[in-house]
Amino acid sequence: MKRFLPIFLLLALSGPLNALDALPKEEAQALCARIEAALLPPQTAEYRLRRHSDLLEQDMHSSGTMEIPAAGVIYLHQKAPVARETILDAASARFPVPQRLFDEKVFRIECYDEGPNFLLVLTPLRRDLSRVVGSVELRTAGRADKVQKVRLNSPDGGYTLLELL
User: Fold this and answer.
1) What pTM does this model have?
2) With contact defined as beta carbons under 8 Å apart, do 154 and 133 qualify?
3) Which end of the chain has fewer CB atoms at under 10 Å, N or C?
4) Residue from 119, 127, 125, 122 nearest 109 by CA
């Protein structure tokens, strides 16, 4: 019985994602198009960020303002725990950043109806990208096209959770 316990736990934990209703392909494509349009720059939002790694004793937390002035450029104006500025630029990134988030040649895109929200799961198809990104999960704010949470899962089991306020 003891050796079957991990299998039961795995099935129990994987159950909620399997229980979600996958959107039909046409609805999923329409949702992706609406969210992609809603994410076009310029954008500004307050954020909370949590980074989790099995290598750290505690999760790292930060908050501040995120600004997207142009495609492929993100400014993080962190206010807490310490003030600092970070610029993320696709042109100078250390790993290949896709031009479009909802590109079916780059990601396997799965869309689920979570009742009050939509969940989009993007899994890299390209080997160079899958070395740094396990998957990207986007949750909408209610049934709207506004992204409320982004969870970036790393291949090693860690994750970064970005909540837009």
Assistant:
1) 0.83
2) yes
3) N
4) 122
